[in-house]
Amino acid sequence: MRGYGGKTYLLNEPRPLRERAREYALLPLRVFLGVTFVYAGLDKLTDSSFMSASGAGSIGEMMRAVRDSAAIPGLVDLTLKSPEGFGYAIAIGELAVGLGTLIGLWARLAALGGALISLSLWLTVSWQTTPYYYGNDLIYLMAWLPLVLAGASVLSADSFRASLRRRNM
Fold first, then answer.
1. What's residue 5's pLDDT?
2. Does residue 152 have a pLDDT over 90?
3. 9-45, pLDDT tens digit by residue?
4. Which residues contact 7 (CB under 8 A, 6 or more apart)?
5. Are 100 and 109 in contact, with CB atoms under 8 Å apart?
6. The model's pTM
């Protein structure tokens, strides 16, 4: 038996379309954020000019450019101590978050990581964007929150692990 929307259905009993749609509602968001963060991480890791302390298109130059307009300049100062290290940390973090989100492995933790990356980028890189709703990092932060709350209930490693646990009980 399964319970959905206050009703209980037998395991093999077909559920109404509305119930199935509700179950899959966050899947498009999960796929979009997962693919986007995998792409962003790979893009950074394969861009030698980005992974430099100085020069056009480098993480160091970008951080120096936003330092005075950031909400938390101290956070930018911290990144400027090792721009390459920060660049690798962000890129590997985006890659891990994206893969975890796509696979649905520790999905809430992956979504929290995505939200924290987006928050840090919003408070530094896109803080000066006006009007505020043009800054995409704030939008990404808000997009991660439903996945932090709900996790990945379908087509995920988490749901597979949960079904194994239920079966072994």
1. 53
2. yes
3. 555 677 788 888 888 999 999 999 999 999 999 999 9
4. 19
5. yes
6. 0.86
Written as six digits, the tokens of 155 are 């087509």
Report the candidate in 135, 130, 61, 141 with the shortest Cα–Cα distance to residue 97.
141
The pair of structure tokens assigned to 85 is 């290290």
- Residue (of 161, 112, 155, 115) closest to 137 by Cα position: 115
CA distances 17 to 1, 26, 109, Å, are 18, 15, 30
Residue found under tokens 């929290």: 112
In whole angstroms, how far apart are CA 169 and each of 1, 122, 162, 164, 165?
15, 44, 11, 9, 6
pLDDT tens digit sequence for 45-94: 999 899 999 999 999 999 999 999 999 999 999 999 999 999 999 999 99
Between the alpha carbon of residue 144 and those of residues 5, 51, 141, 148, 152, the distances in Å are 24, 26, 5, 6, 12
Crossing angle of helices 107-124 and 136-150, in 10° steps, is: 160
Q: What are the residue ranges of helices labelled H in the chain?
A: 17-23, 27-45, 59-66, 73-80, 83-103, 107-124, 136-150, 157-167
